[in-house]
Amino acid sequence: MSTERMPNPAALIPEAMEALMAVNRAVAGAGVDARLLALSHLRTSQINGCAPCVAGGVHQAQRHGVTADQVHAVAAWRETPWFSDEERAALALTEAVTRLADRPDPVPDHVWDMAAKHFDQKELAALLLNIAITNAFNRLNVPTRRQAGQW
């Protein structure tokens, strides 16, 4: 198992951590169901292989009422019956935005249109910011080899 290389860079620059947490607070207050934000956070962190964010995402999801079936199956959400159309739209957007470099059209119209069908512009903004801030935390934790359980 790999060891920690250094603390999370945002922890070394307290103003940066405060700014990241301010974005989290703004997203949380934007009116999107906390369950959706938790599912999006968890799926982004799974894709990026960020152990502390996956572990934290599971706890966050459970706190906000995400079912055990959903928590265990979020990586295979397309193949399960446990997600609503709204959750599926959020998860599809999450995957597309997290994997921007994987295809020539990173966020295809069908993915965007499905999300826009379920969320207004402010809610879409909150979802995109949630995905972006989760990716930011993943990109700070993964290269520094942060381990799950290190809060």
TrEMBL record:
Residues 14-95 form the Carboxymuconolactone decarboxylase-like domain. GO terms for molecular function: peroxiredoxin activity. The keyword Oxidoreductase applies. Keywords: Oxidoreductase, Peroxidase. The keyword Oxidoreductase applies. Pfam families: CMD. NCBIfam families: ahpD_dom (TIGR00778). This is Alkylhydroperoxidase AhpD family core domain-containing protein. It comes from Microbispora rosea.
